Amino acid sequence: MDISNGQKALATRADLKRLGIIVSNSTLLRWEARGRFPRRVRLAGTSVAWLLNEIEQWLAERAVERDTWHYADAS
Questions:
Q1: How many helices (H) and strands (E) does the chain have?
Q2: Residue 13 to residue 71: CA distance in whole angstroms
Q3: What's the pLDDT at 8?
Q4: What is the pLDDT of residue 11?
Q5: In a 3-state reduction of DSSP, which class is residue 48?
Q6: R_g (Cα) of the chain, nearest Å
Q7: Measured distance between the N- and C-terminal CA atoms of the chain, rounded to whole angstroms
Q8: What is the model's pTM?
Q9: Which residues of 25-38 are buried (b: 16+ CB within 10 A; e: fewer)?
Q10: What angle do CA 10, 49, 45 make, to 5 degrees?
């Protein structure tokens, strides 16, 4: 999604799922509190969204991290 006039694009919970971020709201809240995920923007009442550029940056950081972090030793 490209917004060329300077506006910020928002990502909803459904957008997060489409991007492959399929975790519970509790997990997202915990990650946000620990600084491990971009913080949400409160729109109105209980409606929230995230800044799309921050989500895209977070995903790019995870991709870079993947190249340097190993879940299990290959030996």
A1: 3, 3
A2: 28
A3: 84
A4: 97
A5: strand
A6: 14
A7: 42
A8: 0.79
A9: eeebeebeeeeebb
A10: 130
